[in-house]
UniProtKB/TrEMBL annotation:
GO terms for cellular component: ciliary membrane; motile cilium; non-motile cilium. This is ADP-ribosylation factor-like 13B. Pfam families: Arf. The keyword Magnesium applies. GO terms for biological process: non-motile cilium assembly; receptor localization to non-motile cilium. Keywords: GTP-binding, Magnesium, Metal-binding, Nucleotide-binding. Mg(2+) binds at residue 6. One of its GO terms (molecular function) is metal ion binding.
Protein backbone atom coordinates (compact mmCIF):
# COMPACT_ATOMS: atom_id res chain seq x y z
CA UNK A 1 0.00 0.00 0.00
CA UNK A 2 1.34 3.42 -0.94
CA UNK A 3 1.47 6.20 1.62
CA UNK A 4 1.23 9.70 0.24
CA UNK A 5 3.71 12.32 1.48
CA UNK A 6 2.42 15.26 3.48
CA UNK A 7 1.62 18.25 1.30
CA UNK A 8 1.66 21.49 3.27
CA UNK A 9 1.07 20.90 6.97
CA UNK A 10 -1.54 19.73 9.44
CA UNK A 11 -2.04 19.89 13.20
CA UNK A 12 -3.53 17.20 15.43
CA UNK A 13 -4.35 17.64 19.13
CA UNK A 14 -4.42 14.45 21.19
CA UNK A 15 -5.51 13.98 24.79
CA UNK A 16 -5.02 10.84 26.85
CA UNK A 17 -5.96 11.22 30.49
CA UNK A 18 -3.99 14.14 31.89
CA UNK A 19 -1.62 14.23 28.90
CA UNK A 20 -2.13 16.58 25.98
CA UNK A 21 0.01 16.40 22.85
CA UNK A 22 -0.03 18.56 19.74
CA UNK A 23 1.47 17.03 16.62
CA UNK A 24 2.52 19.23 13.72
CA UNK A 25 2.88 17.23 10.50
CA UNK A 26 5.03 19.41 8.26
CA UNK A 27 5.62 18.45 4.64
CA UNK A 28 9.17 17.84 3.50
CA UNK A 29 9.05 19.61 0.15
CA UNK A 30 11.68 22.26 -0.51
CA UNK A 31 9.10 25.05 -0.69
CA UNK A 32 7.63 24.38 2.76
CA UNK A 33 10.85 23.66 4.67
CA UNK A 34 11.31 27.38 5.30
CA UNK A 35 8.42 27.35 7.80
CA UNK A 36 9.79 24.46 9.86
CA UNK A 37 11.83 26.74 12.11
CA UNK A 38 8.64 28.55 13.13
CA UNK A 39 7.65 25.40 15.06
CA UNK A 40 10.99 24.57 16.71
CA UNK A 41 10.51 26.60 19.90
CA UNK A 42 7.10 25.00 20.55
CA UNK A 43 8.46 21.47 20.07
CA UNK A 44 9.56 19.08 22.78
CA UNK A 45 10.88 16.56 20.26
CA UNK A 46 11.17 15.78 16.56
CA UNK A 47 10.07 12.78 14.50
CA UNK A 48 11.95 12.93 11.20
CA UNK A 49 10.36 10.59 8.63
CA UNK A 50 12.55 9.41 5.76
CA UNK A 51 11.41 7.80 2.52
CA UNK A 52 14.20 5.24 2.36
CA UNK A 53 12.93 3.96 -1.00
CA UNK A 54 13.78 7.31 -2.64
CA UNK A 55 17.49 6.65 -3.10
CA UNK A 56 17.94 9.71 -5.31
CA UNK A 57 17.05 12.03 -2.42
CA UNK A 58 18.97 10.32 0.39
CA UNK A 59 21.81 12.88 0.35
CA UNK A 60 19.33 15.77 0.28
CA UNK A 61 17.47 14.17 3.19
CA UNK A 62 20.70 13.70 5.15
CA UNK A 63 21.70 17.33 4.59
CA UNK A 64 18.24 18.59 5.57
CA UNK A 65 18.18 16.51 8.74
CA UNK A 66 21.68 17.71 9.71
CA UNK A 67 20.55 21.31 9.24
CA UNK A 68 17.52 20.73 11.49
CA UNK A 69 19.62 19.07 14.19
CA UNK A 70 22.13 21.94 14.22
CA UNK A 71 19.43 24.53 14.88
CA UNK A 72 19.75 25.97 18.44
CA UNK A 73 16.03 25.48 19.15
CA UNK A 74 16.28 21.76 18.34
CA UNK A 75 19.61 21.01 20.03
CA UNK A 76 19.14 18.75 23.05
CA UNK A 77 15.59 17.71 22.18
CA UNK A 78 14.76 14.05 21.53
CA UNK A 79 14.80 13.00 17.87
CA UNK A 80 13.28 9.87 16.33
CA UNK A 81 14.27 8.96 12.75
Amino acid sequence: EDVAPTVGFSKVDLKQGKFEVTIFDLGGGKRIRGIWKNYYSESYGVVFVVDSSDIQRIQETRDTMAEVLRHPRIAGKPVLV
